[in-house]
Amino acid sequence: MDSSPSPDLQQFTGYLLRLAYVKSAGAAQECIPEDTHIREVAILSILAEQGAMSQRALSEVTHVNRSLIVKLVDGLEAKGWVIRERNPHDRRSYALQLTRAGEEALANLNDDVDKGEAELNAALTADEVDRLKSRLRELLVDDPALTVTSLTDRTGYLITHAHHTLRGWAERGLEPLGLHPRDFGVLMTIARDEPCSQAHLAAALGVSSPAALCFLDRLEAVGYVSRSRDPGDRRLLALTLTEAGRSCLERARHAVAGVQEQIAARLGPTGDADLRALLSKLLTR
Q: Are strands 82-87 and 53-54 parallel, antiparallel or unpaired?
């Protein structure tokens, strides 16, 4: 699937970070064993560095919801890499500890992740990689993710948490409009290319066709998108925005502009532009 940035959307840092997140997760996942998830590597690294901690504390550091943390820890425990013990300070909770087998697994997995990092950073010079990581750390200032010093020099780790941070900002900005950040991308793309096909929309956003269909179903249900037969090819559906969709998009533009202002306030306008340029270059390969 093409992950090159959409010209109209690449002015938004959050959009570039989403594509970079998808690329970084894919690069890492391809280099580690099939029965291991990249999130498991992060959990092992955190426990190795910070020692025993509760599932709640682990959720706060990783920004992964507690129900998913439970599933991840269940898997790690089944492999013998992590053990759960009653927290001596709170008998209602468990303290997670890394086992010797977990330490050995982490050493091997770190070598694998290094290969994924090299692939992720391949389009950048060494200086650009350092600059990118510096910009991402600035964006994440005061984030608990930066307390895991063994991971804060990994581009993929920083991209992951920066993506989650900006997605949270965008969700809060768009919530009054009843939109999700992905909806903004859909509306922007259709507005630029209408009438367009579902396949074109999916390619422009870097998502699968079924995912695009799911987004469209919701936006059509609220009256923002219209689907009709393409007069040039009756087998295809042509996507257009309704008047309500155009009005909503204009309001959404203002909300997303507010997110960009938050980013510029943290990095400075020059820093934000530099981050977008570096992310765009990272995505070229």
A: unpaired
Distance CA 9, CA 263 (A): 16
Closest CA to 107 of 33, 44, 35: 44
Per-residue pLDDT, averaged over 218-233, amounts to 84
H helices within 175-208, ranges in order?
181-193, 198-205
Whether the CB-CB separation of 54 and 96 falls below 8 Å is answered with yes
Euclidean distance between the first and final Cα of the chain, in Å? 12
Q: Report the SS3 class of residue 45.
A: helix
pLDDT tens figures, 91-141: 667 789 999 999 999 999 999 999 999 999 999 999 999 999 999 999 999
Q: Residue 227's beta-bridge partner residues? A: 239
Domain 176-248 has CATH 2.40.50.40: no
Q: 3-state DSSP call for residue 35? A: coil
> Looking at this protein, which amino acid is placed at residue 207?
V
Contact by Cβ (8 Å): 79, 109: no
**Is 62 in a helix, a strand, or coil?**
helix
Residue whose pair of structure tokens reads 């204009």 in the numeric block: 250
For 164-180, how does the pLDDT look when each residue is reduced to its tens digit (9 = 90+)?
999 999 999 999 999 99
- Please, is 163 exposed, middle or buried when counting C-beta atoms within 10 Å of its C-beta (0-12, 13-18, 19+)? buried
Q: 230 forms bridges with which residues in the sheet? A: 233
Question: What DSSP character marks residue 260?
Answer: H
Q: How confident is the model at residue 217 (pLDDT cuts 50, 70, 90)?
A: very high
pLDDT at 231 > cutoff 80: no
- State the pTM of this model: 0.87
Q: Are 17 and 159 in contact (CB under 8 A)?
A: yes
Place of tokens 């790690």: 76
Token duo for residue 27: 């690069």
Whether 86 shows a pLDDT value over 80: the answer reads: no
Measured over the CA atoms of residue 164, residue 169, residue 172 and residue 174, the dihedral's sign is negative
